[in-house]
Task: inverse folding
């Protein structure tokens, strides 16, 4: 199967700080790749390079056959195919849940407002928040906000979903509801790259786990192998702390 | 007209005699202020965005730095760093004749130029000077307002495939506008009061009316107290409008 995400020798530097030091990675269609690693290892930066929110210092990122960091690339068109979910939700506070979801489909995809609203209702039903359709984000809990954020990204009908520590800003009792939505998405065959601290999720939902440390992929493999019998010493040390 | 004394000293009949002058002056002041607030806000928005212009790739990057950021910064620095009074004189007596002149106006010349200068010269110069000046101040309000919006808002919008301009229009500016209302209101009030300086180039607004009356009667309490009250009522009205807008655009705001 052809890789829908192809990363080669990706480097990223912030001033003197080398955050990514040469990452290679392929993601196939319908694959769920979980990225784990200590804080400061470059996980989020890696994810943000995949849709061009961060600009690569060197190397190549090709998504859906398009070079992300080529200046000639229509980055807006590419991003409309890649959903992204953030740690801090980033819902638009001046818009209702419905308005948050229909904005991009109507403006970017050219959907009529009724068609976009219908799609929004279907997605809200799927994440279990149809009753909050007219609420403003500040009237929702963190878990509800994140589920709306997922629905908002899905409303563009992306072929790939990126998750940047989607449960790290949530109270513990709300983590489950968000992970359940993500698991359902994975079961439907969505291609997903998930930066996470939820080792249980990575173990049970991930097809493959990437362990990043100091800007490099130290080890990768199926979750059972990586969690069960990690080969690298750094992986073992990290896992012994978090498991 | 018979003398009318209020409280034993206030010659109300003076105000009554010149009521047409005051009334026209009031309308001129309001018109000048409204036109300049609208134009100054538009200019301020453009300048504020120019001061934030950034691009990743050459040559757009150089264009942003030398073609937008630097000129805008110099412009704002000049208009905030020199007295408005001097700017008004400079524009009326030096800049405007350069563009609109009977013999060799760069924009308009001949009989039309003479007519414009005679009938609208002071108003035009006043509008230009106050707009350019308030635009410089308002650009700082826009810049701070835009910068105060969380970066995550822009990232979320851009990652949905929305362009920079769509993100500005739908996401950043509506949220920034709410936060900018109080300082924008302050600017509008300052502009209203500063419009009195335009009387120096002979525009018949409120301060000019007061000066005319003072000159005719040699009395100062009545005309200047009268226009003070009018300015005061106008600024109170503006403050009320701003408060009303704040309440209206506060939807969904947590901060």
Result:
């Amino acid at each position: 199967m052809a890789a829908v995400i192809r990363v080669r020798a990706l480097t990223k530097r912030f001033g003197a700080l080398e955050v990514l030091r040469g990452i290679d990675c392929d993601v196939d269609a319908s694959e769920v790749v979980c990225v784990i690693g200590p804080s400061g290892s470059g996980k989020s930066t890696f994810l943000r390079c995949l849709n061009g929110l961060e600009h690569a210092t060197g190397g190549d990122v090709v998504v859906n056959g398009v070079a992300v960091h080529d200046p000639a690339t229509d980055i807006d068109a590419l991003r409309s195919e890649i959903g992204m979910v953030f740690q801090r939700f980033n819902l638009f506070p001046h818009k209702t849940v419905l308005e948050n979801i229909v904005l991009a489909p109507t403006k970017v995809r050219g959907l009529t407002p009724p068609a976009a609203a219908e799609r929004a209702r279907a997605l809200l039903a799927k994440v279990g928040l149809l009753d909050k359709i007219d609420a403003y984000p500040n009237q929702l809990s963190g878990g509800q906000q994140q589920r709306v954020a997922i629905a908002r990204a899905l409303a563009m009908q992306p072929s790939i979903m990126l998750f940047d520590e989607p449960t790290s800003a949530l109270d513990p009792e709300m983590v489950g509801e968000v992970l359940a939505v993500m698991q359902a998405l994975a079961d439907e065959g969505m291609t997903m790259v998930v930066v996470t601290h939820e080792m249980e999720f990575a173990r049970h939902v991930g097809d493959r786990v990437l362990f990043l440390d100091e800007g490099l992929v130290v080890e990768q493999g199926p979750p059972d192998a990586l969690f069960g019998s990690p080969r690298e010493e750094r992986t073992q040390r990290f896992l012994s702390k978090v498991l | 007209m018979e003398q009318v004394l209020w409280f034993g000293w206030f010659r109300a009949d003076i105000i009554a005699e010149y009521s047409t002058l005051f009334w026209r002056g009031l309308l001129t002041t309001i018109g000048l202020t409204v036109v300049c607030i609208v134009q100054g806000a538009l200019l301020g928005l453009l300048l504020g965005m120019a001061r934030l212009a950034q691009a990743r790739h050459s040559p757009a990057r150089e264009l942003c730095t030398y073609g937008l950021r630097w000129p805008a910064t110099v412009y704002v620095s000049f208009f905030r760093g020199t007295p408005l009074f001097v700017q008004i004189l400079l524009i009326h007596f030096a800049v405007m004749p350069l563009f609109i002149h009977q013999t060799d106006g760069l924009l308009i010349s001949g009989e039309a130029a003479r007519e414009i200068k005679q009938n609208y010269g002071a108003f035009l110069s006043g509008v230009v000077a106050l707009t350019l000046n308030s635009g410089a101040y308002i650009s700082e309000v826009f810049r701070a307002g835009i910068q105060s919006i969380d970066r995550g808002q822009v990232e979320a919008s851009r990652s949905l495939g929305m362009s920079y301009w769509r993100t500005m229009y739908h996401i950043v500016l509506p949220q920034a506008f709410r936060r900018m209302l109080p300082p924008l209101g302050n600017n509008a009030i300052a502009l209203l009061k500063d419009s009195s300086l335009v009387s120096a180039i002979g525009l018949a607004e409120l301060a000019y009316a007061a000066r005319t009356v003072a000159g005719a009667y040699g009395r100062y309490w009545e005309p200047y107290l009268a226009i003070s009250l009018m300015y005061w009522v106008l600024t109170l009205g503006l403050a009320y409008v701003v408060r009303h807008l704040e309440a209206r655009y506060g939807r969904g705001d947590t901060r």
Remarks:
- The CA atoms of residues 75 and 162 of chain B lie 31 Å apart.
- Chain B is about 75% helix and 5% strand.
- The radius of gyration of chain B is 22 Å.
